[in-house]
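Quick one: structure for this chain?
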Amino acid sequence: MAASSAKPRSSLQVYISFRGSDVRNNFLGHLYTALDLLTGISPYIDSEELSKGGQIAPLLMSAIEESHAAIIIFSTNFASSRWCLEELAKIMECKEQEPDCVSVRIQRKSYGAAMAKHEDMFGKDSEIVKRWKEALFAAGSLSGWILNDGCEATLIKQIAKEISELKRFDVFLSFRGKDVRENFVKSLNEALVRTGINTFMDSENLVMGQDFPPALKDAIEQSFMYVVVFSENYAESWWCLKELVQILERKNRRKQPMLPIFYQVEPGKVRGQKQSYEEALTKHEIEFGKRKVKKWRDALSEAANVNGMHLRDG
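Got it. Here's what it folds into:
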């Protein structure tokens, strides 16, 4: 069997929005192949059968919501399709929460005429047409590429390169270093890496500073799943608590999975902030105030209610 030159499969989900009659059988096909071979990403594109309906399918709305990046291909007849405009509006809505969205502009002529036809159908003051116009305006302000009569292959390589640089992690590990770094978490991380899972595990050098570093926040935002290891002294670290809040925000917003592991600590102790957890949080209230610490308490209660694993002394 011949060896494959393709990249390892990526769990990054990319949605491509396009006007099928313009690009499905040329530019889009070449872009899809390049992303698959050069980055290991198999983007989501709708099928011709799916796009035959009058209204945009709920399946596509879900695919947009679940994607981590979007590529919008603006072509001659993009704006003539209500389907494309609805996709675009949904993508821009999601972009308010997620930053990864790039555009490829092949041609922008005929957009005015297309929108005029939509106004004739839905009314000039229609909310739906207004929504589409706002989405087009916002998307048109994005940085992107313009393909007129240039080299298509070169542009496609540039797009694949930018998408591949969206550095993502399969699993983000949140833990109290002094409790589990050199034993449980070290072994867990090694086991995950051996199976081809790309993990983020902060280094001791990273945690020595006083401020919560942007690199850590970025890693949380760029991870697909979170493993939170609750141990005896987890709540002692405001760093861990701030991580937890951001993890839950991401989990709730993007429906991404989180696995709590209760390492030699009872879930009820975390949920109700008892014993060492209460002692730690009481100290934090003196330094940070009760309002901020309440957010941390709520996060601990919420996380402890997620189905997880309990490791006692096994």
